[in-house]
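Handoff note, outgoing to incoming analyst
You'll be picking up this chain. Sequence as last confirmed:
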Amino acid sequence: STARIAILSDIHANLQALESALAIIDRSKVDDILCLGDIVGYGANPNECVALVRKHCSTTVKGNHDLAATDLSHADYFTGPGKTAAVWTNKTLTPDNLDYLSTLPMIQTAAGCTIVHASPDAPNEWTYVLSLETAQLQFSHFSTEICFIGHTHVPVVCGENLKTFALKKGMRFIINTGSVGQPRDGNPQLSFGLFDTGEWNYDNVRAEYDIPGAAAAIMNAGLPQVLAARLSHGF
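Most recent structure output, in case you need it:
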């Protein structure tokens, strides 16, 4: 059976971006929504974002910021602002949402695809797949035709031959959907993926959202100012 699937990653408690992404998805008539983790961290609305993911996403995997929010020992390697945000998020999340995040799996198969936050070779080591060399290592660690990843906040499509950067039939692919809530490719627009299993077509969706609103929420929460400022730069 063919399906249209939306794939969200790295929401980072950015409610304004998530609501905008879900509005686009609603108009796109998708059959399923998957989430690649980092629902929380950095942003000011962790409970609202977790609630929306729980409501709309059929399958969700755990990101490093989701893990850190439930176990602060995992925030030790974060930057200063990231660590401050993890402590704040841990205090702010409801017990129910903390429990939900703590029970998320690291890697899953959904809609015939592998989904994982960072990398399929070692999901709990939070490797950044930012080079062809690192990408090449991943293909022997999943058996599906496509593996969707996040974590780098940079959207990319990479075929197994390391020379094909648009989805096509007959080759396996790693696809990074980019970040809903904190893009880092120099484009501040929200990013997510739309995959059609029948057409075998993948689109990286970019769209405007209320960046001033998201930044104001971060400032009003007393979180580090850099976390608000970076949203408008896209890095």
